[in-house]
Amino acid sequence: MLSIFRLFIIVFAVSFLYWPLSSHAAKRPSMIRDAEVENTIRIYATPLFRAAGLRPEDVDIFIVRDGTLNAFVAGGQNLFINTGLIMASEDANGVIGVIAHETGHISGGHLSRVHKALSKGSAASVLATILGGATAIATGRADVGAVIAAGGQSVAARNFLAYSRVQESSADHAAMKFLDQTGHSARGLLSFMEELGDQELLSPAQQDPYVRSHPLTRDRISAVQAHVNKSPHSDKPVSPQLADLHERMKAKLYAFINPMPRTLRVYKASDSSLYSRYARAIGHYRQGKLDKALPLIDGLIAGEPENPYFHELKGQMLFENARLSDALISYGQAAKLLPNSALIRRDLARAQIEYNQPAFLKAAVINLEAALAVEPRSPFNWHLLAIAHGRNGDQGRSSLALAEEALLKNDPKVALHHAGRAQKIFPEGSREWLQAGDILLAAKSAASKQRRKDQQ
Fold first, then answer.
1. How does the average pLDDT of the chain come out, rounded?
2. Distance between CA atoms of 79 and 101, rounded to whole angstroms?
3. CA 198 from chain center: how many Å?
4. Which residue of 182, 225, 300, 427 is most buried, as measured by CB atoms within 10 A?
5. Residue-wise pLDDT tens digits, 418-427
6. Which residues are 33's β-sheet partners?
7. What is the residue-wise DSSP string for 3-55?
8. Tell me, what CATH number does 109's domain have?
9. 306 and 283 Cβ atoms separated by less than 8 Å
């Protein structure tokens, strides 16, 4: 399910209930959460991470809703990829080549100073801090009140993400090694670099952010071209599986990002391909036309009954149109098919909470605990868990969840309140009592740091 995280106020949206309508709002950077898109990028990236000696599970992947060509690593092992880069890619190799290059920066320890400064932040605060630059770092509050520059085009953003030419060359050589080791052609990387080379002739205001933060030279392009000329994998086509995954991902993103008339110009009603039907199902749903969206998604499910993402999308359509009983069936099937997806388990729990029956509330707790086992730093998951526990009459665990949420949102005052309340409810020495104590210690430390910063 696609959902957005507005960075100016860090509102944790539960779903694609709306999309920014004004041109100003549409330009604000935001993160898109979608199980299918994230898993597709992870399929691309995992062999490269392993070739680089990295543990794939230690690298977090985030999709940024921004139409410019950009990708970067920050805050430790966090990989950010713009939707603009994905949509501009002709095939999977283009994105894989960029990921290989960014993996070279991770394995090379580049920008370690910035990584150290941001490594403890959430993905949203990392992105906000980068775009907000020095102000966000000085205040320690990238989520609230910091002046955030749109589109990553500020001087601060360029300074944070800028690599030296030596580092760029090093990342290129690492990327070519990783691509060879994983059996991928470097032509995608070469094509991307050639496009960036053309952009260098443009004024800085017209260039994509990747050009400004990743200095390009003809020597770099020549080095990749030389590698392509000799690599045994250069003429190897993209595998049918990756080609299919890429087209599905692009169709989904295009339909969610663009208005329906534009979607229909690319994915025409006369086109009966899976990708076209997928995009049109999303487009009709976004228009509120379930009479057209549901037959399309039902047709896709009939063709691929074991596809969790089709069931998930149908669940989203039904949930957002107040058809809770039917939504629970679709979300339940998606969770059955992909039980390790934190996003799907969360959305199933959200529907169960909305249904507000004792049996479903208990199931929601189980699903949210499973989601938190995968994504423990998700404030929204903790918020939903607090609601589920509260409706179950378990005020102690509800307070614990609210305290965890507040701590992740850098609100030590609220965290102290709820953790203190929880510690009074649970027996001394119990697991919950100890959890509340840990939160109290962390919140007191955070509050002390805030006071010192305020006094500076």
1. 83
2. 11
3. 29
4. 300
5. 999 999 999 9
6. 3
7. EEEETTTTEE--SSS----SHHHHHS-EEEE-HHHHHHHHHHHHHHHHHTT--
8. 3.30.2010.10
9. no
- Mean pLDDT, residues 329-354: 98
Query: Residue 191, Cα to own-chain centre: how many angstroms?
Result: 25
pLDDT value at residue 148: 30
Q: Is residue 182 part of a domain?
A: yes
Q: Can you tell me the distance from the alpha carbon of 311 to that of 298, in angstroms, rounded to the nearest whole number?
A: 9
Structural domain of 114: 3-238
The per-residue pLDDT for 77 is 85
pLDDT at 361 over 70: yes
Q: DSSP character for 347?
A: H
Q: Rounded distance, CA 313 to CA 303, Å?
A: 15
Q: DSSP letter at 164?
A: -
Strand ranges across the sheet with 30-33: 11-12, 3-6, 30-33, 60-65, 78-82, 71-74
What is the average pLDDT across 300-315? Answer: 98
Q: Where do we find the tokens 């320690």?
A: 140
Tell me how many domains the chain contains. 1
Residue 74: band (very low, low, confident or very high) from pLDDT cuts 50, 70, 90: confident
Cα 97 to Cα 104: distance, rounded to the nearest angstrom: 11
- The type of residue at 234 is S
Task: Judge whether 137 lies within some domain.
Answer: yes
pTM over the 0.70 mark: yes
Looking at residue 102, its pLDDT comes to 92
Instruction: Let me know how long the chain is.
Output: 456
Distance in angstroms (rounded) separating the CA atoms of residues 383 and 403: 9
**CA 271 distance to own-chain centroid:** 30
The residue among 403, 394, 447 whose CA lies nearest residue 421 is 403
Give the Cα separation of 225 and 59 in Å (integer): 29
Q: Is the pLDDT of residue 160 over 50?
A: no
Tokens of 101: 């290059």
445 domain residue, yes or no = no
Question: Which tops the pLDDT comparison, 199 or 170?
Answer: 170
